[in-house]
Amino acid sequence: REEFYKYQWDSNSCEKYSIFLSQGQYPIKGLHYVLEAMPLILKNFPSAKVYISGSDITKSDTLKDKLLMKYYGKYVNKIIKKLKLQNNVVFTGSLNETQMCQRYLQSHVFVCPSSIENSPNSLGEAMILGVPCVASFVGGISDMMQHNEEGFIYQTDAPYMLAYYVCEIFNNEELALKFSKRAREHALKTHDKDKNTTRLMEIYNSIKRCKSK
């Protein structure tokens, strides 16, 4: 999206010790793994917060909210209460393109904790902006981001690894800046709109020529 090519993450402007998830509305997106990692993160960084884009799936202010809450929302709510994370978890509500871009830029770390992924746009957007990233080792993620050079990749069902890598970035600004620079350089090549459009047209023209023979 156009907005993500206009800005670049700045460690001096972000909210320190904040984590951003682009979505967490259903189980395969892995929000529960991040919540399980939070006690380990909070042990080292007590002010850490998790921001999740989208509606609050744990909302239970009214009888209607409680009746409409889905099973995963109940499960997430149970984890939050059990681990006493009420002050450390924020659902941002629905964000438009501009708001989403700014939420990335305000974050100290972007986490993609999915248990199933292909080539997530959210990780690509974070890398274009240069937000330091931690992502699960599923699908095409390892093709998008090089472990320990452009970000951290961890075993998806191991929250302790997620916690360790998030804390590594929180604790090491030099590392965060290295990831930011290298991931952005990679993503701007991978997601070069002009080159990708030109290549796509070449493919279509090639198919057209084959069909005309």
Topology:
Blueprint: E1 18-21, H1 31-44, E2 49-53, H2 63-68, H3 71-82, E3 89-93, H4 97-106, E4 109-112, H5 121-129, E5 133-136, H6 141-144, E6 152-154, H7 159-171, H8 173-190, H9 193-212
Parallel strand pairs: 1-2, 1-4, 2-3, 4-5, 5-6
Describe this structure in words.
- The protein has 213 residues and is α/β, with parallel strands linked by helices.
- 50% of the residues lie in helices and 12% in strands.
- It contains nine helices and six strands; from the N terminus they run βαβααβαβαβαβααα.
- Helix 1 (31-44) runs parallel beside helix 3 and helix 5 (121-129) crosses helix 8.
- It is globular.
- The mean pLDDT is 94.
Could you provide a short overview of the structure?
By secondary structure, the protein is α/β, with parallel strands linked by helices.
Spell out the key features of this protein.
single chain, 50% helix, 213 residues, globular, alpha/beta, six-stranded parallel beta sheet
Helix content: 40-55%
Say how many strands there are.
6
Please list the strands of the largest sheet in the order they lie side by side: 3-2-1-4-5-6
Q: What is the end-to-end distance?
A: 37 Å
Helical stretch tally: 9
Large-scale geometry: globular
CA radius of gyration is 19 Å
Could you describe the largest sheet, including whether it forms a barrel? 6 strands, parallel
Mean pLDDT: 94
Strand content: 5-15%
Structural class: alpha/beta
